[in-house]
Design goal:
Number of strands: 17
Helix content: 40-55%
Distance between the termini: 27 Å
Structural class: alpha/beta
Mean pLDDT: 85
Oligomer: single chain
CATH class of the largest domain: Alpha Beta
Number of domains: 3
Radius of gyration: 38 Å
CATH architecture of the largest domain: Alpha-Beta Barrel
CATH superfamily of the largest domain: Divalent-metal-dependent TIM barrel enzymes
Shape: elongated
CATH topology of the largest domain: TIM Barrel
Strand content: 5-15%
């Protein structure tokens, strides 16, 4: 009787199992484009991949020689060859835009600027065109790493979940602001830095007393020095963050809903108001000096006209008038030579006063400009998140529109959609709720554009936006939030890990409920860094994640290699197959126990027959595949 567990068992006789979590055809793998546009794709096809995502590392001007490969580095003929190779082998393609973009809000070393934003959008546009030419549609993944922000306030106070970048983050976090006119980032708001605020006189009802100039009346306090001497100072008090929050609530009570302030804005405004008060005080002093100087000049002009008439009447005897002129007709603080006719001395006094008036005028104008700049700055200071999210969603809506237009231009049968992907926890867009907000707001803006510029109905526009803007979720990226997850008092590590996994899966359920996700990346790690371990070799709840996605109908997924030995990149894809319950092709027989990966891989000892294949380090490395060593063709 034949033994089908031996090496001569034919692959066509294998037992087909139906208990795998995902079919092999739905589990793809990602590659990075190289100077040989076809070779990486050919290699993955030979490994058995039925889905391949082509990604790029380069941005800007490409260079084959330096390895700066971007979509534009691959010409029409190569794109057509990729398309035909995938079609012949029944391989489905997707695209990953360059990882070199820094998000879509336009964040640069200089703050936020539209030049950087447009440059990043152009990178996505050429990835969209590449996807249309090669994949004929599908996902165009792009990294959404929008801007840095603290972690302590991401989850609601009542959520039962807390993330901290460091133990004292909730007390000393920096809450950045941005000047909406320039995009300049303001880092002066730190929660643990207290500010000094003036104390004002109050009436019987506790309300501040207002003077005739419309200002609050400051309270004066008596201060005694060490030597016993007493002097008076304006009284101040120290405000902590709780006091800032109370002041925010007081101001918001009289503001419209769309004008509500955040505590960090109020913190900055209070500091700016102190500078504004100083500037206004200096302006008042300047105007006093100006009015006084103007009055002096008028007196000098009057005296000059009077003495001019006297000198004209005196004729040749006007020299004697030098002794008749009294200095009290000149401003006291003007020091002039004692010699000269009255008109000569007065004319010099007028010239001095004219110069002084001109100087005060220029100082006054500059001070007024400074005050107006303070006021405009206060009106344009926005929380960084509000400003940047507005820019990010506008950008995503624009590339969503471009994907829709390219799809129509090329006559594609499959939706071509942009797919923002959250990356690192310290950047906005990585938290599932932030990613959800980016997608929903981008869809809304795209739908509005379709209605206004293309004349679409509201329902049709919303449908088009939903089909062309979706999220890519990488379970490994979400798993990195684990290192910031805070254990509850008395909670064990295992209990905390279970609670974290439940949080992750509940967030995914919420995204699916809102139809946010359109594409999946599968990678693993231990919750510290995005290591791209082989699926199942880290701590990410991948099987539970994929099961949720399958139930929601989201099955477009690729495994992302990264941590594997360069000669063992296949381990990522095969690891995915193994994790999702697939046995090795051709070694199980009807009526006999199904063999899994662990029964075969790295399990050659104790067998009667040697393996009939070259595997791992025994297999020919890439540099020896080709003439004169080996053509690369299969032995059959």
């Amino acid at each position: 009787m034949a033994d089908f567990d031996q090496g001569y068992y034919h692959s066509m006789d294998r037992e087909y199992r139906n208990d795998a979590l995902m079919p092999i055809k739905d589990i793809g793998v990602s590659i990075m484009a190289t100077k040989d546009a076809l070779q990486p794709l050919v290699a993955k096809i030979r490994e058995g991949a039925s889905k391949v995502e082509i990604g790029f590392l380069g941005a800007g001007k490409g260079s084959i020689f330096s390895g700066n490969i971007n979509p534009e580095s691959i010409d029409k003929e190569q794109r057509e060859a990729i398309r035909l190779l995938a079609k012949v082998n029944k391989v489905e393609l997707s695209t990953h835009a360059t990882v070199a973009t820094g998000g879509f809000a336009g964040l640069s070393n200089r703050g936020f600027d539209d030049g950087t934003r447009i440059a990043n959008l152009n990178e996505i546009k050429r990835a969209i065109e590449f996807a249309a030419d090669t994949a004929q549609g599908g996902a165009v993944t792009m990294h959404a790493q929008e801007f840095p922000r603290p972690l302590f306030n991401i989850e609601g106070k009542d959520s039962g979940v807390k993330f901290l970048a460091h133990p004292s983050e909730s007390e000393d976090a920096v809450l950045p602001l941005v000047d909406a006119r320039t995009g300049e980032i303001i880092q002066s708001v730190r929660k643990n830095l207290k500010i000094q605020m003036p104390v004002y006189e109050t009436d019987a009802d506790g309300k501040p007393i207002v003077n005739k100039f419309g200002n609050y009346v400051p309270k004066i306090e008596e201060v005694k020095d060490k030597d016993g001497s007493v002097h008076h100072l304006f009284k101040t008090e120290e405000w902590d963050w709780k006091k800032i929050e109370e002041e925010t609530a007081r101001r918001n009570a009289s503001l419209a809903k769309d004008k509500q302030l955040k505590p960090e804005q109020v913190y900055h405004v209070l500091q700016a108001e102190a500078s504004l008060k100083t500037a206004k005080g200096e302006e008042i002093e300047l105007m006093k000096d100006y009015d006084l100087m103007k009055e002096r000049r008028e007196r000098v002009v009057e005296a000059l006209e009077k003495w001019k008439a006297v000198e004209d009447a005196a004729g040749s005897n006007k020299e004697r008038l030098k002794d008749d002129f009294r200095d009290d007709e000149l401003p006291r603080d003007l020091v002039l030579p004692k010699q000269g006719l009255p008109t000569e001395r007065l004319q010099r006094a007028k010239e001095i006063l004219d110069r002084q008036l001109a100087s005060i005028e220029q100082k006054g104008i500059a001070q007024r400009e400074r005050i107006r700049d303070f006021e405009k700055t206060m009106d344009n200071i926005k929380p960084l998140s509000d400003f940047a999210v507005e820019k990010s969603t506008d950008s995503i809506a624009r590339v969503g529109m471009y994907a829709y237009d390219v799809e129509k231009q090329k006559g594609l049968k499959k939706d071509l959609f942009v797919a923002p992907e959250g990356i690192f926890p310290d950047r906005y867009g990585s938290h599932p709720q932030e990613l959800k907000n980016l997608i929903i707001e981008s869809r809304r803006k795209m739908a509005e554009t379709l209605q206004k510029e293309r004349g679409m109905s509201e329902s049709a526009a919303r449908d088009v936006a939903e089909r062309h803007i979706k999220a890519t979720v990488d379970v490994g990226h979400v798993n990195v939030w684990r290192k910031y997850f805070q254990q509850n008092p008395g909670e064990s590590i295992d209990q905390a890990n279970k609670r974290f996994n439940n949080w992750l899966l509940s967030e995914m359920k919420d995204l699916n409920k809102s139809k946010i996700i359109g594409h999946l990346h599968i990678s693993d790690n231990f919750g510290y860094e995005d290591e791209h371990l082989t699926p199942g070799q880290g701590s990410a709840p991948i099987k539970e994640f994929v099961k949720l996605m399958k139930e929601a109908g989201v099955t477009d997924m690729v495994v992302e290699p990264g941590a594997q030995d360069p000669a063992k990149q296949y381990e990522a894809l095969y690891g995915g197959w193994k994790l999702f319950g697939h046995s090795i092709y051709g070694v199980s027989a009807p009526g006999k126990k199904s063999l899994n990966w662990g029964d075969i891989q790295h399990n050659y000892f104790g067998q009667n027959n040697p393996p009939y294949f070259l595997f791992g380090e025994l297999a020919l490395s890439e540099e020896y595949r080709g003439s004169p060593f080996w053509s690369g063709l299969g032995l059959e």
